[in-house]
Amino acid sequence: MIGFLTGQVVSLKASSLILETGGVGYEVMASKTTLEFISQKGSRMSLWIYTSFRQETVELYGFLSEEEKSLFLALLKVKGVGARMALSILGACSLEQFIRLIKEENIKALTALPRVGRKMAQQIVLTLQEQVSDTFIGSKDKKPLSSEKVTQALSGLGFSPAEIQEALGQIQWQNNLKKDLQQALTYLNNN
Question: For residue 48, which of 6, 69, 149, 180 is within the disulfide window of CB 3.0 to 4.6 Å?
Answer without folding.
Answer: 69
